[in-house]
Amino acid sequence: MEFSEYFPVWDNMTPQQQQAVSASLVSRSAEKGTVLHNGGTDCTGLLLVKSGQLRAFILSREGREVTLYRLFDRDMCLLSASCILRSIQFDVTISAEKDTQLWIIPSDIYKQIMEQSASVANYTNEIMASRFSEVMWLMEQIMWNSMDKRVAAFLLEEASIEGTDRLPITHESIANHLGTHREVVTRMLRYLQNEGMVRLARGTVSLTDRAKLEKLRSESNY
Amino acid sequence: MEFSEYFPVWDNMTPQQQQAVSASLVSRSAEKGTVLHNGGTDCTGLLLVKSGQLRAFILSREGREVTLYRLFDRDMCLLSASCILRSIQFDVTISAEKDTQLWIIPSDIYKQIMEQSASVANYTNEIMASRFSEVMWLMEQIMWNSMDKRVAAFLLEEASIEGTDRLPITHESIANHLGTHREVVTRMLRYLQNEGMVRLARGTVSLTDRAKLEKLRSESNY
Description:
alpha+beta; Arc Repressor Mutant, subunit A; 8 helices; homodimer; about 25% strand; about 45% helix; Jelly Rolls
């Protein structure tokens, strides 16, 4: 598959713009765990996922993490090129959550084209709106949902992404996704196990009653 | 003051585009407390503040509110026209926090121009990036409260060194002390002002509630 098939506004660019992108594009493989972009110091470029899975998260001073969103096949990461938009005033870290194949479009090339092309600018706008929406969803989760619902939602999402009810995941890792402490997650998982919704074993969490988890996730807090 | 003086990319639009905006523009006054935009059901249009103060907030199903950001003179509100970007998947409410004079640009007119003009599209992008940054700031506050404590600590230390609660200091200078961006400090100081802890004037920051600042500084993150 060619880059042009992954980049939806390719045909709206001029031959010169297409040439500039093709000539500067970097194709890269990243092993699971690789940090591809590290906060505000880098201006890595735009990342376009061929295959695999990336994770965008924020870090506290104390090293706590919160997952903002995931990027899958054909998704483009804009915040790894935040230098192209001076109004972006926050830092995210991007890492490969699975072995990932991707393209990197250099920030300066993309910025030039975005300034010339309404089509590319509007496409960029849609991508930012989409990430903004994911963060707002997370904000609403954090603001109005208790931790049991957030853990249930996380487990259901993971099971959906992985296509299995037996998740090879540690309590520490779940805590990092949700921005909380391992102890909180352990307590919550034990509660869910007592309620028959999950079964815990070393290094795995198995979903044993999806319907009940889904009910918990969707219940009102009040 | 004319609309053209409030809209930074006015001169980059074609005469036809300028004409389309001028002909469709609505000038409006909103008394303090007026709800100008109500979640996902409306596509009110873009709001450009002449004078006054707007507040953007989200509402839980149970009616709890969280303020996302404020809009002051010359600020433009994009999320009141979220129908122009299909990727915006969340609802905000916009109300007048003070008596406010504003213009409303109809969504369909703006969308048309944005699709034609790279300049308008990129301006829209910057506005969205800016609101996205405010929401991320709020998220970090909510998750791990950090920069507010650092700014509070800095102001208290300066006041102690200078022997006065009226500090002749720029936001830029505070940013340089803390190793962050001026915009981050400006946003933080506005937050502290909203909370009644400081008063901002050109070139000065006055501490108006030391006890509250000291309490903020010493609060644990957890």
